[in-house]
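Budget justification aside, the reviewers requested a transparent look at the raw inputs and outputs of the sequence design task funded under Objective 1. We therefore reproduce one unedited record. The lines immediately below are the structure tokens for a 454-residue chain.
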């Protein structure tokens, strides 16, 4: 069996923890691992191979977190534009043998009770071998308005339901035949593609054309023009709600899509007052609060709040209202704020950089380059740069000469000078980068060479 992992995401529902270039599946919320890593760990005992479908900008994040795991064969399909789950699944199915059984899972769901999960997957695999498209319905524990529902009679699907209001959700719970829609599937790759061609031929044809346009290399990169030619549609709308071959496995393993901070609060350990555990939290007569911060946070006489503190943004909301975080993101996008896109720390294929300070005419960053990695040859038209090595060894190309910079040593890169930074050593290269000039935005870069290094 092959695990198709859907690794997209816009980073809006858990802002400011998540951002467009650092969505929630990469945040290490539980046990020092990200949800993406937990997905791989959970399924490596079930599946021999993995296909990860990701936005190309998140490829390096996934690779970095993969390095810390021991899993089976892994391939990537990189999308240059997001087109929702139906095209993403179809692209992965086109990359495997039509008779292969695939387990399709999001990368950002929390699943507990692993043995029950594996048993449900085993049941689904049996139905998939009989030619069905199989999904998983989670037995609801409460009236939830943030999930879609599946109405079923045993393994037979009666209907799919959109996210309900609270009163309708209560009716579903009372009925007893409704399950949360998990967004996970098991089927033969060829069965899915044939059903997609039957019920959504425009999606099938556009996706097939986009896949055939790629060079077939690993990773498989689908160009922006080809991706944008595909209709954007979810797998439920495109296939599951129309197909006559759908079955559902009623399941009771612990599951959450962590679609809001209220859902995150439910999963965190808490103290005797109902506050989430945090060694930096000082509580005075406060209870039932979610506190996420690396700094000291103190509360006095408050209840039912969500406080999420990052290096560059602070979110405070009442519990029960955290779904409105999307409205905050919308307002930030309207003013073109970078706060929806990146954190103070930005991850690249070669390492990362962290903004330490920025003011008129200067910017200070801490840059980390992983062993054996290098940046592209580049130059800037509006800024000078001064690099100070803190640890490791830097190999710096300046025009037609190369220099080695060691700890406590530095170098200067003037405006328009072609330069390149490389780590030839065995440990991380850590340096302080001071930029000065009238224009310090990231688009003041002219790259020369292999853009995959950037």
């Amino acid at each position: 069996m092959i695990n198709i992992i859907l690794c997209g995401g816009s980073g809006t529902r858990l802002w400011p923890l998540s951002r467009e270039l650092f969505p929630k599946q990469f945040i290490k919320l539980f046990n020092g691992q990200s949800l993406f890593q937990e997905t791989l760990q959970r399924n490596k005992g079930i599946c021999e191979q993995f296909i990860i479908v990701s936005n190309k900008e998140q490829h390096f994040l996934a690779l970095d977190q993969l390095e810390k795991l021991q899993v089976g064969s892994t391939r990537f399909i990189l999308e240059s534009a997001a087109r929702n789950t139906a095209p993403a699944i179809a692209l992965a199915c086109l990359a495997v043998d039509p008779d292969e059984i695939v387990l399709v899972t999001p990368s950002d769901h929390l699943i507990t009770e692993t043995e029950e999960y594996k048993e449900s997957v085993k049941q689904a695999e049996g139905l998939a071998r009989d030619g069905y498209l199989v999904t998983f319905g989670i037995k609801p524990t409460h009236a939830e308005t943030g999930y879609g529902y599946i109405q079923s009679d045993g393994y037979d699907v009666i209907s799919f339901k959109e996210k309900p209001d609270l009163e309708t959700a209560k009716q579903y719970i009372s009925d007893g035949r409704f399950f949360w829609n998990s967004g996970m599937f098991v089927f033969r790759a060829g069965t899915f593609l044939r059903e997609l061609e039957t019920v959504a031929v425009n999606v099938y044809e556009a996706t097939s054309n986009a896949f055939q346009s790629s060079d077939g290399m690993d990773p498989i990169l689908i160009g922006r023009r080809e991706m944008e030619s595909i209709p954007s549609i979810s797998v439920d709308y495109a296939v599951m709600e129309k197909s006559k071959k759908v079955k559902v496995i009623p399941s009771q393993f612990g599951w959450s899509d962590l679609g809001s901070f209220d859902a995150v609060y439910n999963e965190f350990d808490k103290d005797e007052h109902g506050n989430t555990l945090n060694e930096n939290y000082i509580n005075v007569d406060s209870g039932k609060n979610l506190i996420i911060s690396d700094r000291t946070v103190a509360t006095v006489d408050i209840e039912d709040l969500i406080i999420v503190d990052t290096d560059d943004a602070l979110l405070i909301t009442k519990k029960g209202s955290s779904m409105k975080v999307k409205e905050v993101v919308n307002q930030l996008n309207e003013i073109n704020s970078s706060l929806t896109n990146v954190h103070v720390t930005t991850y690249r294929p070669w390492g990362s950089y962290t903004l330490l300070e920025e003011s008129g005419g200067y910017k200070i960053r801490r840059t980390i380059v992983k062993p054996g990695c290098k940046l592209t040859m580049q130059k800037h038209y509006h800024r000078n740069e001064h690099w100070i090595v803190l640890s490791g060894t830097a190999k710096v190309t300046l025009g037609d000469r190369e220099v080695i910079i060691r700890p406590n040593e530095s170098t200067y890169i003037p405006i328009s000078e072609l330069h390149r930074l490389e780590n030839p050593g065995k440990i991380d290269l850590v340096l302080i980068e001071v930029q000065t000039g009238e224009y310090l935005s990231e688009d003041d870069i002219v790259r020369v060479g292999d853009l995959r290094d950037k």
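The mean pLDDT is 94. The first strand starts at residue 2 and ends at 6. Computational costs for records of this kind are itemized in the attached budget.
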